[in-house]
């Protein structure tokens, strides 16, 4: 059903209400995507039975899978959302690189 989409939208609204900075939104989306990918990896590689079935039934593999699940028949909207996703991940990598360079001590 739409459980994954509803939970993601509720979490996004909570983040928007509590944080005012752009990088908070980017970090939230990256954290959700990384968590979904980690859960998918665990589902594929560890035999947990009920937990594995729950992850398979209710959680997408990543945010990109969620975008494809709900907009695959909408053509242009799907392509635009995919590029927005790629843009968000590029910005996330920029923030991670910036933090890494700041912390670097020679």
Q: Domains counted in the coordinates: how many?
A: 1
On the 0 to 100 scale, the average pLDDT is 87
**Number of strand segments:** 0
Oligomer category = single chain
Portion in helices? over 70%
Distance between the termini: 52 Å
Q: What shape does the CA trace take? A: globular
Description of the molecule:
The chain has 106 residues and is an all-alpha fold. It has one domain. It has helices at residues 3-18, 22-45, 50-58, 63-71, 76-103. The termini are far apart. The model has no long low-confidence stretch (mean pLDDT 87). It has 5 helices and no strands.
Main attributes of the structure:
about 110 residues; mainly alpha; about 0% strand
Short description:
With 106 residues, the protein is mainly alpha-helical. Helices cover 81% and strands 0% of the residues. The chain has helices spanning 3-18, 22-45, 50-58, 63-71, 76-103.
